[in-house]
Amino acid sequence: MPSLRVVFAGTPEFAESHLAALLKSDHQVVGVYTQPDRPAGRGRKLTPSPVKRLALEHELPVYQPQSLKDPAAQAELAALDADIMVVVAYGLLLPQAVLDTPRLGCINVHASLLPRWRGAAPIQRAIEAGDAASGVTIMQMDAGLDTGDMLLELKTPITEQTTGGLLHDRLAEDGAKALIETLDALAGDGLTATPQPVEGVTYAAKLSKAEAELDFRQAASTLAQKIRAFNPWPVAWCALGDERLRLYMARAEARASESPSVHVEADRVAPGTLLPHGGDHLRIACGDDGREVLCVSHVQLPGGKLLPVSALLNAHPPRLAPGSRLGSPLIQQEESS
After folding, report:
1. CA dihedral in degrees (127, 157, 180, 194; nearest 10)?
2. Contact predicate 179/22, CB 8 Å
3. Contacts for 62-66 with beta carbons within 8 Å, 24 or more apart?
4. Same domain, 299 and 248
5. Same-domain pairing of 96 and 28
6. Which of 40, 68, 85, 88 is the most exposed place for a label (fewest CB within 10 A)?
7. Domain range spanning residue 121?
């Protein structure tokens, strides 16, 4: 099988696993593009990306242009004489001049089953939306946002135990395998590109810390999906008095009956009220009428470590006693107004 000269473009850990697989393949990495070093940590020290660190370990040439629209940067890329450019979570737009530079063009590894979840955060948005499956798609890049023709697709299930972190790691592994399979095929007899379906397009907006606060007026299933999707970042949270309780793992439970130990008025409990605990989880009333139950198994108390709820309940923290109420005072004021 002939070997391809590959330029790799990527930045975060998800991309690093793909570069690692590429370095173990028969193909030759002739250059690595990644985002400029960014300030990180308490000292705000300039820190290289995971992709840059791996590239330097293997003594590969590294390029960090602010933009690929610069003619000088485009000439630098052309001088590498690559057969193909592989793009994985790079973070810069590729102008048409760059897309046309390699002999076989540019391909992208995208962490969703296109055309669903084009955009910045496909892994988390799939879990948050309650999708039954996710996957990776290798596509031939064009000038649009994740709109190129599909070359290869791998599918994986999403279950009630799937978190953003777990799906990230699984798709990083699957994507690396799919990438090598794609490159091997392109180096040989080639692959048939399939246009993306016109229907079913959704966009995965970038995650923000601002959307991580939970509103217990929402359905239990919606909240559970959000908690799992935002684990390990930005981490779902709710107010616990004047502090924050972070929630990492949850599922929805059908509300069977009320307990006399919790105040009930006309079969209604205020959303955010802690119900009698389960053996290893907190039970939180939610939904517009408080009749749904969110079961939370892993939390982080203010100033503490991430722990299974079973470990916390053994200590009987008074702030988590049944009848206590979680959630923003502003939301509670909205309910009573």
Report:
1. -80
2. yes
3. 62/31, 62/32, 62/33, 62/34, 63/31, 63/32, 63/33, 63/34, 64/33, 64/34, 64/35, 64/36, 64/37, 65/33, 65/92, 66/36
4. yes
5. yes
6. 40
7. 5-204
| Residue 85 burial (C-beta neighbours within 10 Å; 0-12, 13-18, 19+) | buried
The residue out of 189, 204, 219 marking a domain boundary is 204
Report d(CA 34, CA 11) in Å as an integer. 5
Q: Considering the entire predicted model, what is its pTM?
A: 0.92
Decide: residue 141, CB within 10 A, 0-12 exposed, 13-18 middle, 19+ buried.
buried
Task: Report the alpha-carbon distance of residue 52 to residue 62 in Å, rounded.
Answer: 7
The number of residues in the chain equals 337
**Rounded Cα gap, residues 267 and 246, in angstroms:** 28
Count of structural domains within the chain: 2
The reply to whether 66 and 190 lie within a common domain is yes
How far apart CA 188 and CA 269 sit, in angstroms, is 64
Give the mean pLDDT per block of 10 residues along the chain (337 residues).
93 98 98 94 88 98 96 97 98 95 98 98 98 98 96 98 98 98 95 96 97 96 98 97 95 63 56 92 93 96 91 81 85 53
The structure tokens 């810069």 sit at: 92
According to the model, what pLDDT value does residue 302 have? Answer: 87
In terms of domains, do 76 and 198 share one? yes
106-110, strands of its sheet edge to edge: 62-63, 28-33, 5-10, 84-88, 106-110, 133-140, 150-157
- Dist CA 29 CA 27 (whole Å): 7
Read off the CATH number of the domain in which 256 is found: 3.10.25.10
CATH code, domain with 83? 3.40.50.170
Cis check for the bond before 232: say yes or no (omega within 30 of 0).
yes
Q: How far apart are CA 264 and CA 254, in angstroms?
A: 17
H helix or E strand, kind and range, residue 150 = strand 150-157
Q: Which residues contact 283 (CB under 8 A, 6 or more apart)?
A: 253, 274, 275, 276, 277, 293, 294, 295
Domain stop point among 204, 236, 265: 204
